[in-house]
Design goal:
The chain is α/β, with parallel strands linked by helices. Helix content is 36%, strand content 17%.
């Protein structure tokens, strides 16, 4: 079994500042912080708020057309973003996984982590790929955040 970094967990109520636990370090750490989030609307809101504060951020989701996804991935590959939000389903794309291996990912944050433990892998099977991703991103710190875990 691979030697993974010990994960950090953040449990706080909605609006309690959980996002700041990965957003602030992302502004200081080298490379791009990767955030796995299940909700496109939340990703979009977070990116807009970060950009208003001068933090280069993006999200990749199935709601974007193919050309826009390719543009964002090219910018991600060039180091243009401090934070990139993706849905767990993005982890199933070999091209995306290859891109992640080629760039520096100092922090991997799983937002709304209760989706894994409470709803199980049947809800969003691609959450099961997070462990493989952690093994591929040697040295990345891992953070899980939720407002609703029991």
């Amino acid at each position: 079994m691979p030697s993974w970094p010990r994960p950090w967990a953040s449990l706080a109520p909605t609006g309690g500042g959980k996002s700041l636990t990965y957003q602030l370090p992302a502004t200081f750490l080298p490379g791009t912080t990767l955030v796995i989030s299940p909700l496109v609307a939340l990703m979009n809101d977070q990116v807009q708020a970060l950009e208003r504060r001068g933090v280069p951020a993006t999200f990749l989701s199935a709601t974007l057309d193919g050309d826009e996804v390719r543009r964002r991935m090219a910018r991600l590959a060039s180091g243009a973003f401090r934070i990139a939000y993706v849905a767990p389903e993005r982890l199933a794309f070999p091209g995306f996984r290859g891109l992640l291996r080629d760039i520096e990912i100092p922090l991997l944050a799983v937002d709304e982590a209760h989706c894994i433990s409470e709803w199980g892998h049947d809800f969003r099977p691609d959450y099961m790929q997070i462990g493989e991703l952690v093994a591929e991103l040697r040295g990345a710190r891992v953070l899980a955040c939720t407002a609703t875990a029991t």
